[in-house]
Write a structure and sequence with these properties.
mainly alpha; single chain; about 70% helix; Cytochrome Bc1 Complex, Chain C
C-alpha cells in the first residue's frame, strides 16, 4: 500500500502541475479577481481546468498526509537522512503552494488570509525580514504569482527528485489521479468565490490554516502562532536524526490532535 500511495501522490502532483499551467495563461495579477472570473465563466473549459487544478491539489495534500502517516507507522525508517529531509522540504512546499494558490483567487477570503499571513510574518522575529519577498507594494498578487508558478514548484520538484530520485509517475497512476479529480469535481462544487467588500459574517482561509486563524482570535501572540505552525515540520525533520523516534512521533500525534481541535473550534 505504501508504494501505491507514493505513486499516486506523485501522479497528483503532475495533474495539479499541468492543470495549473492552463490556469496560469488566463491569470493576470494586475486584475486578479476579474481574470479568475473570466476564466471561470467566460473561457471555454476554464471552469473545468480551474476545478481540476483545485481538486487535484486537495487530493495531493490528502495523499501526502497519508504517505507521511504510513512512513511514520513503520518500525524503522528505511531511508537516508538527506532523502528524508528533502521529503520534509517537499511537504512544506506543498503547504506553501496550497496557501499561495488560495491567495491568488483574489476574493475576499483570500485577501483576509493574506493579511493574516502578513501579520504573522511582520510580528515574528526573522520572518519579518523576509516579508518583502512576498508582499508587493505595487500589485498585491504579483509576488504571490511568481512564488506559486515558478519558485515553489521548482522547490517542490527538487525536493521530490532528491527524495525519490525521479519525477515521472507511471501512466496508470496518472490516469487514476486524473479520473479521481474529475469524478470529485463532477460531484462536489468548488467553494464559491466571495466578492471583495461583500458583507459576510465570517471569513476563513484554507482548511489547514484554520487553526492559526483561531489561535489569533484567542489572542495568542503572532510569533507563538508561527512557532506552532512550524512544529510539525521541525519534528518530521528531527525524527530521522534522533534516537528517540517514538517520543517525537508521539509529539507529532499530539500536535495533530490539538491543532485539529483548535481548527474545528469555530464549528463547535
Amino acid at each position: 500500500m505504501a508504494r501505491w500511495v507514493s505513486w499516486l501522490t506523485l501522479a497528483l502532483f503532475v495533474v495539479s502541475l499541468f492543470s495549473g499551467l492552463v490556469v496560469m495563461f488566463a491569470y493576470h495579477p494586475s486584475t486578479a479577481y476579474e481574470s479568475i472570473q473570466r476564466l471561470t465563466y467566460l473561457t471555454p473549459y476554464g471552469a473545468f481546468f480551474r476545478q481540476l487544478h483545485y481538486f487535484s491539489s486537495e487530493f495531493l495534500m490528502g495523499m501526502l498526509i497519508i504517505h507521511i502517516t504510513i512512513e511514520l507507522m513503520k518500525k524503522s525508517i528505511a531511508m537516508r537522512t538527506a532523502a528524508w529531509v528533502y521529503g520534509v522540504v517537499g511537504a512544506l512546499s506543498v503547504v506553501l503552494l496550497m496557501f499561495s494558490g488560495f491567495i491568488l483567487k483574489a476574493d475576499q477570503s483570500a485577501n483576509a488570509a493574506a493579511q493574516v499571513a502578513f501579520t504573522l510574518m511582520g510580528e515574528t522575529p526573522l520572518l519579518s525580514t523576509l516579508k518583502a519577498l512576498i508582499q508587493d507594494t505595487v500589485s498585491f498578487y504579483h509576488k504571490f504569482f511568481i512564488w506559486h508558478i515558478v519558485l515553489l514548484p521548482l522547490l517542490l520538484g527538487y525536493g521530490i527528485y532528491r527524495h525519490i530520485k525521479f519525477l515521472s509517475p507511471k501512466l496508470p497512476y496518472t490516469i487514476i489521479a486524473t479520473a479521481l479529480s474529475i469524478l470529485v469535481l463532477l460531484l462536489i462544487p468548488m467553494p464559491a468565490d466571495i466578492i471583495p467588500n461583500e458583507a459576510v459574517k465570517h471569513l476563513q482561509g484554507p482548511w489547514f490554516f484554520w487553526g492559526a486563524e483561531n489561535l489569533l482570535q484567542m489572542e495568542l501572540g503572532s510569533w507563538m502562532v508561527t512557532l506552532i505552525m512550524t512544529i510539525p515540520f521541525v519534528l518530521l525533520a528531527l525524527i530521522i536524526l534522533s534516537a528517540r523516534k517514538t517520543l517525537l512521533k508521539f509529539a507529532l500525534v499530539l500536535w495533530t490532535l490539538l491543532y485539529t481541535a483548535v481548527s474545528l473550534a469555530w464549528w463547535l
